[in-house]
Amino acid sequence: xxxxxxxxxxxxxxxxxxxxxxxxxxxxxxxxxxxxxxxxxxxxxxxxxxxxxxxxxxxxxxxxxxxxxxxxxxxxxxxxxxxxxxxxxxxxxxxxxxxxxxxxxxxxxxxxxxxxxxxxxxxxxxxxxxxxxxxxxxxxxxxxxxxxxxxxxxxxxxxxxxxxxxxxxxxxxxxxxxxxxxxxxxxxxxxxxxxxxxxxxxxxxxxxxxxxxxxxxxxxxxxxxxxxxxxxxxxxxxxxxxxxxxxxxxxxxxxxxxxxxxxxxxxxxxxxxxxxxxxxxxxxxxxxxxxxxxxxxxxxxxxxxxxxxxxxxxxxxxxxxxxxxxxxxxxxxxxxxxxxxxxxxxxxxxxxxxxxxxxxxxxxxxxxxxxxxxxxxxxxxxxxxxxxxxxxxxxxxxxxxxxxxxxxxxxxxxxxxxxxxxxxxxxxxxxxxxxxxxxxxxxxxxxxxxxxxxxxxxxxxxxxxxxxxxxxxxx
Length: 475
What we know:
The protein has one domain: Up-down Bundle (Growth Hormone, Chain: A), CATH 1.20.1250. The radius of gyration is 22 Å and the shape is globular. It is mainly α and 475 residues long. The protein has 21 helices and no strands. Helix 5 (123-155) packs antiparallel against helix 17 and helix 12 (294-306) runs parallel beside helix 15 (341-353). Helix content is 74%, strand content 0%.
């Protein structure tokens, strides 16, 4: 890691950039709507994918977990290719915006197809169909999501703008999580027709299709309201080998990627299996539509209320505080009787309020990308955000594959669970993410770029003298 002297900052008190967001509210909201769209077609509905596979289609929990894990690892690898190609895109629409425009509709189609099962009664065919549809959906999601994430680094220059953008992104994404949490199962039941069960294939298919249509519209709003204003200092086409060298020598970027994995696992891993906790451990199946939104709603509030403190104490320090709150709340939840819903609700809300750690890591990516350009003269927005997107996919993969863990503990769908299975569900939902959160805190201590340093780096890049000199020496 680099100290302030190493990155050429003689007096941090002279740094004045980033005190106020300068990006128009319409651009910040329009950008945030893109994450709402992502939640509707992928993140939010993925919270119900395991339940769809196990309880509607009839695939075993272990196989469902492997399908989710494998697909997310595959599209995580694909992210790097998308990042490399998108940052080299040259078009009248920009580098990243056209990927959103042209990828939105295919993503909506495959998001709907993921929640179909055209081979009733044939488990082998159902597994193959799940592998193909969810696998392709994940790949198309990468085509849209990686350029979308990279937009935050080229739409805003100041640390304050970047925190504001990503807080808006997280806030609207949280609204999407709340919406999917509250209405998904009721919609599945309503669209199920005469199936006679609240969890049916038909219900999931119609619900996913409705969300897909809304998401495609929101993606186009994001495209229309976004502008790419931050341009690379080097205007020539940078060799891919040189880009990789810039990435692999960017220590802060790799730390942010690790924090994204750990913070994502700590917060999101429980979302993929918490429905099992409420249904089987707490015996509160009728209250699931009200209980599942607790964390997303609290995270939305926490992001809007607490993210602003990043300007005072720094993004890293606020991240550490947020993770500490999560660890304490989750550890307490592990030891609380799940039937004591009052205490469970309070601790869940406390955990959710600390969800502001997620947008903090997003905004740290742009700072790390600036640092990489400052150090090497090469700007690698696409691959930088692809690296962190891979980290996010790994976090979601662990979360989605958590159903594999409860399968190992003996979970069986639609039956009374054994004490071992219930203890396993409790461990996976609460104690496991608490352990990951503790590791995240220790990792964050190694991140050294302050907000003042990030602002000064951006100022120096705007003058062009440092990076241009480095590029000239290489050329």
